[in-house]
């Protein structure tokens, strides 16, 4: 089996296994290097044990257009701590040394990838143990920018589907997607508001009509209850801003990690994971 | 790949909104359907003669177009004398081009911005949008948008970097008088780039009823081409006016570039006239070789920001760096994608003017021509001051005097150490 297939299948394999277990995935998002590389690595290493099924690693960027204030500030902290794309890949390599199973998805913006070099980035990301990419500002219309290189390296290219993505457009977006579909549940930026259950109950079947890929719901999922509901309705729930807020709240006045930072964030992940797993038990 | 020089510079962008490799639509999926909707609506509007008629009616009777082409006689004479001094006794009268000003500063609201704003607001009405948002740096685009929104009875929110709110108080007050809400943006360096980030974020959250009126030839397709098309009224008028005055085309066009809408508007109708040289003037801040400037073409490299691929000020890791200019309107780390293409094609020469050169030009123009130029336009003027003495006497330069400087008198006073 080629390396490409191995990488690509880590995401698919995880979703398939969870389906077997009768539950959806908890997908966590934290920004790499927030607030420093050592804390970031400790968090990353602790996430699977706390119940994260897939891990999104945010790549810091100065101008995160789709992100709300919490993640903007996380990016500023991370950049101040010296974050670079090369540094983020090193972080993933360190994580992979101790965990061969948990899928890692890098989420970020295009310009740092461009600066790194698209070909080299895709090769290095795959070699570092990255399984998939979410490049927020590369829509299907610009997919030829990165799709061939990502495919060649065996990286899944996970696309966002938004409430504004209409039925005419949906097949085009989904055709360019692999790994899973990330449903942006609100028209808005990260961490600002939450979708209603009714709107999600309409949206997810609409997407499923067009794809057999797993669907994860993100943007605006903060509480264990919301995560459980989203994971039940779809195949996964992404929680980002709520974790970033906890992390930010644990820092000292200078924005440095305190001894309890890692524990507080991982405790929250445990709470989310329990809710997501409880759902499975109840359904079963 | 060999790069062929195109037969025409006036055929871009392509269907993907690309000017060569530049431009495009690099936005999140939430915005993508909306961008496509704007594009369709704009294509339909272009084919509708009634749309053009209404826009031109507003330009004539509300904006006061055509704006005059003014022969800047005293400035011309002054620079001829300077040319003479510089060359000693050797043919002092042989040099010093004739300088014309395209007087966009006489437009209603005091700058070229209103040309494209009125076009976009008419488009927003056609699309059934009921709210307008805009970003602004110097405040000129914000004032123009607030003005058009007052005229068309549309609620208007203008995003403005907190730093710019501070240094452009008169325009902030103008926007408020016109009924607009001004949202100070505190993220990043709190200038134009951050205002644009925030406007895009707000738009994503309000896609149903809101139209984003972008102030320059940047952003995702179709904005760069649409804003250019509307601003081309500047170059089209200039062409007619200079032919009427001189019986021939100018030898050089000069315009300051931040995002570059006034420059595209002047340059585009002349792009295929090989005899017309063009100079885009970037803000060189404290100097091109310092860290404080806004010269994305001279000192940046291609990247993707705000929906398009273009030259950007960025570090080795692709993080966007802060721009600096005395002029809030030029204080942007990017530039319209068409300028990036024209730069690489070599059709337009992009040069720099420092804060100090702009300040000198600002004062010289005020004293010699009785025209207080915007600090943005003063950068263009600084290039004219360098260029005219090197050109023969019978040659012609047209400067786009894109805005008036009333808004800048506080900034200038501060730099000159004058307390108002």
From TrEMBL, chain A:
The active site is at 56 (proton acceptor), 67 (proton acceptor). GO terms for cellular component: cytosol. PROSITE patterns: TRP_SYNTHASE_ALPHA (PS00167). Its EC number is 4.2.1.20. Keywords: Amino-acid biosynthesis, Aromatic amino acid biosynthesis, Lyase, Tryptophan biosynthesis. Pathway: Amino-acid biosynthesis; L-tryptophan biosynthesis; L-tryptophan from chorismate: step 5/5. Pfam families: Trp_syntA (PF00290). Coiled coil: none annotated. It comes from the Bacteria. The alpha subunit is responsible for the aldol cleavage of indoleglycerol phosphate to indole and glyceraldehyde 3-phosphate. Belongs to the TrpA family. HAMAP family: Trp_synth_alpha. Tetramer of two alpha and two beta chains. This is Tryptophan synthase alpha chain. It comes from Siccirubricoccus deserti.
Automatic annotation (TrEMBL), chain B:
Residues 93-403 form the Tryptophan synthase beta chain-like PALP domain. SUPFAM superfamilies: Tryptophan synthase beta subunit-like PLP-dependent enzymes (SSF53686). GO terms for cellular component: cytoplasm. Keywords: Amino-acid biosynthesis, Aromatic amino acid biosynthesis, Lyase, Pyridoxal phosphate, Tryptophan biosynthesis. InterPro entries: Trp_synth_b_CS, Trp_synth_beta, Trp_synth_beta/beta-like, TrpB-like_PALP, TrpB-like_PALP_sf. Its EC number is 4.2.1.20. It holds the Pfam family PALP. It comes from the Bacteria. It catalyses: (1S,2R)-1-C-(indol-3-yl)glycerol 3-phosphate + L-serine = D-glyceraldehyde 3-phosphate + L-tryptophan + H2O. One of its GO terms (molecular function) is tryptophan synthase activity. The modification N6-(pyridoxal phosphate)lysine is found at residue 113. PANTHER family: TRYPTOPHAN SYNTHASE, TRYPTOPHAN SYNTHASE-RELATED. Tetramer of two alpha and two beta chains. The beta subunit is responsible for the synthesis of L-tryptophan from indole and L-serine. Belongs to the TrpB family. HAMAP family: Trp_synth_beta (MF_00133). This is Tryptophan synthase beta chain. It comes from Siccirubricoccus deserti.
């Amino acid at each position: 089996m080629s390396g490409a297939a191995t990488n690509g299948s880590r995401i698919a394999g995880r979703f398939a296994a969870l389906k077997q277990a009768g539950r959806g995935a908890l997908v966590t998002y934290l920004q790499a290097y927030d607030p420093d590389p050592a804390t970031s690595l400790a968090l990353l290493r602790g996430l699977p044990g706390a119940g994260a099924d897939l891990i999104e690693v945010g790549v810091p960027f100065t101008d995160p257009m789709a992100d709300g204030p919490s993640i903007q500030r996380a990016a500023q902290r991370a950049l101040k701590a010296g974050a670079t794309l090369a540094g983020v890949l090193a972080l993933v390599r360190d994580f992979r040394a101790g965990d061969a199973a948990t899928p890692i998805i890098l989420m970020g913006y295009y310009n740092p990838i461009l600066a790194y070099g698209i070909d080299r980035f895709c090769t290095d990301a795959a070699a570092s143990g990255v399984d998939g990419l979410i490049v927020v500002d590369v829509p299907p219309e610009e997919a030829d920018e990165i799709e061939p290189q990502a495919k060649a390296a065996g990286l899944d290219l996970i696309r966002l589907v938004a409430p504004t993505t209409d039925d005419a457009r949906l097949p085009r977006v989904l055709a360019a997607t692999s790994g899973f579909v990330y449903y942006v549940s609100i028209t808005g930026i990260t961490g600002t508001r939450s979708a209603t259950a009714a709107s999600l109950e309409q949206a997810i079947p609409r997407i499923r009509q067009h794809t057999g890929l797993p669907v994860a719901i993100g943007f605006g999922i903060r509480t264990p209850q919301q995560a459980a509901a989203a994971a039940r309705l779809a195949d996964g729930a992404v929680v980002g801003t709520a974790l970033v807020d906890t992390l930010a709240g644990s820092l000292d006045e200078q924005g440095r990690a305190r001894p309890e930072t890692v524990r507080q964030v991982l405790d929250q992940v445990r709470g989310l994971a329990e809710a997501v797993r409880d759902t499975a038990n109840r359904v079963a | 790949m060999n790069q062929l020089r195109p037969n025409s510079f006036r055929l871009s962008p392509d269907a993907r909104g690309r000017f060569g490799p530049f431009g495009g639509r690099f936005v999140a999926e939430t915005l993508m359907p909306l961008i496509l909707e704007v594009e369709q609506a704009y294509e339909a509007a272009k084919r509708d003669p009634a749309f053009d008629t209404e826009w031109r009616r507003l330009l004539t009777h509300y904006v006061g177009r055509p704006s005059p082409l003014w022969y800047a006689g005293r400035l011309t004479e002054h620079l001829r004398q300077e040319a003479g001094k510089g060359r000693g006794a050797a043919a002092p009268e042989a040099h010093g081009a004739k300088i014309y000003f395209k007087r966009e500063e006489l437009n209603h609201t005091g700058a070229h911005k209103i040309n494209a704003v009125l076009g976009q607001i008419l488009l927003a009405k056609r699309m059934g949008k009921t709210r307008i948002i805009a970003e602004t740096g110097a405040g000129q685009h914000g004032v123009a948008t607030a003005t058009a929104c007052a005229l068309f009875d549309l609620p208007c929110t203008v995003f403005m970097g907190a730093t710019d709110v501070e240094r452009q108080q008169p325009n902030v007050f103008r926007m408020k008088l016109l009924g607009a809400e001004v949202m100070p943006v505190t993220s990043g360096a709190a200038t134009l780039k951050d205002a644009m980030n925030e406007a895009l974020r707000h738009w994503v959250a309000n896609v149903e009823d809101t139209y984003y009126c972008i102030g320059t030839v940047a952003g995702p397709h179709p904005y760069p081409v649409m804003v250019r098309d509307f601003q081309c009224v500047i170059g089209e008028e200039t062409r007619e006016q200079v032919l009427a005055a001189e019986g021939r085309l100018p030898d050089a066009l000069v315009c300051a570039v931040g995002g570059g809408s006034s420059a595209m508007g002047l340059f585009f109708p002349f792009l295929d006239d090989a005899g017309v040289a063009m100079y885009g003037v970037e803000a060189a801040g404290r100097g091109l070789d310092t860290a404080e400037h806004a010269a994305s073409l001279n000192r940046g490299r291609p990247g993707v920001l705000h929906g398009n691929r273009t030259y950007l000020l960025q570090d080795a890791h692709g993080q966007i760096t802060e721009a600096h200019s005395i002029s809030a309107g030029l204080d942007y780390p990017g530039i319209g994608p068409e300028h990036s293409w024209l730069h690489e094609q070599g059709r337009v020469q992009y040069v720099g003017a420092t804060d100090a050169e702009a300040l000198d030009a600002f004062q010289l123009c005020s004293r010699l021509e009785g025209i207080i130029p915007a600090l943005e336009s003063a950068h263009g003027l600084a290039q004219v001051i360098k260029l005219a003495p090197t050109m023969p006497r019978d040659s012609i330069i047209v400067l786009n005097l894109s805005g008036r400087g009333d808004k800048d008198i506080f900034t200038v006073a501060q730099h000159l150490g004058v307390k108002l």
